[in-house]
User: Fold these one by one.
Assistant:
Number 1:
Amino acid sequence: QVQPVESGGGMAQPGGSLRLSCVDSGFTFSNYCMGWFRHATGKEREFVAAIRWNGISTYYADPVKGRFTISRENAKKTVYLQLNSLKPEDTALYYCAKARVPTVTIETFQYDYWGQGTQVTVSS
């Protein structure tokens, strides 16, 4: 299994948008749930969003519900996170991770392969 690789982070103004991508070239990508987590300085790592292996089910943490959208393209072995209506409190290092299971899970221990992260900074 190859480690996922995130991209798309950067700086945005409050109210702005960013789109994160994560490519997982491991051959089992389409069989498993994929998730996004974030880690802000001085805080614990937290779950952001997850998507079922076939994309038909998603789950979001309350702080991002209605603003972020997770999606995936199994043919491209890529999962996306669209970040809209960004707030300063969304500033964090965002990680993509592959789950051990096909269905949606928010449990950190269920994720076995993690990327290095991509930084998102929201500031005016």
Note: DSSP finds no helices and eleven strands in the chain.
Number 2:
Amino acid sequence: VQLVESGGESVQEGASLKLSCAVSGLTTYPENCMAWFRQAEGKEREGVAGIAERDGSTFYGASVKGRFTIRHDVAKHMLYLEMNGLKFDDTAMYYCAADEYNLGLDRSYTYWGQGTQVTVS
């Protein structure tokens, strides 16, 4: 399984940004789940958003709810994170994650990408 993130960059507060994650090699199971996490310097990894394969249901961390949107294009094998109203506190390395089971925003996902840096100033 390979997850490759892209789209991170330096932006000003209030800006919008879209992160992408190319997914390959993931076997399709009914309970597949994909998510975005982030880790700021000196802080623990935090769940940002997730989406369940079974019914397309989405879930978000409290700090981003209403500002971020997760989307999964199954046909293109792509996961996206659309971020609006970016704040200084959103600065972090953002990681794409996947698992055969719906883990919500628990950090024990099996598959991880290398991350893409988002800096808000």
Note: The chain is about 0% helix and 50% strand.
Number 3:
Amino acid sequence: QVQLVESGGGLVQPGGSLRLSCAASGVTFSNYDMSWYRQAPGMERWFLASIIGATGLTNYDDSVKGRFTISRDNAKNMVYLQMNNLKPEDTAVYYCRAKTIDIETMHEYEYWGQGTEVIVSS
């Protein structure tokens, strides 16, 4: 059974930092591309950053480029999101996603965690 569990959220002041973690189980982790998304109240879930399983290549949404850093540890089945210089508009529930494609069937497998809440407020 595939499970993704996020942690590390909380209340932080503007300008502060947090590191989110996502622990994966039930998957061959290095086969999965991992991503972070967030969803603010009343808003759609929004892509923030991704990291390729095989190469470690990263991609970021412009809104977080230069402030957020995604990384992974395939030996520990973990993906991280380091968030610096946090702003009130970063307040949201943050989710990690795991995605892979079976190259034989071309079937896509996608899994989501339950989310961790980040509140940026003074």
Note: The CA atoms of residues 17 and 27 lie 30 Å apart.
Number 4:
Amino acid sequence: VQLVESGGGLAQAGGSLRLSCSASGFTFDAYGIGWFRQAPGKEREAVSCISTSDGVTYYADSVKGRFTISSDNAKNTVYLEMNDLSPGDTAVYYCTAHQSWPAIVAGWGDYWGEGILVTVSS
């Protein structure tokens, strides 16, 4: 099982980045996929999740209207489009997967990627 994040890096405030989570080794469309983030000195928090079977989504209040999650089941990949970025979005972003929707939203992923750093400068 492997989850690999890509697309992170440095952005200016107000800018955009798109993260990708490429999955392998499990039945992709039977899992919920989530994005979580952890900023220095802070606890890990949920950002957004998607049910790859029916497209149901979840967004944290802090990113609603700015971030969009989507899934390409043919490519076993979930994307997180991040717009209007602010320095408060600076964190390591992790991709995670779980078969249970409540579990994935709660952060109890079965599988986790290694994380990718997003830095937003003011």
Note: Residues 63 and 109 are 20 Å apart (CA to CA).
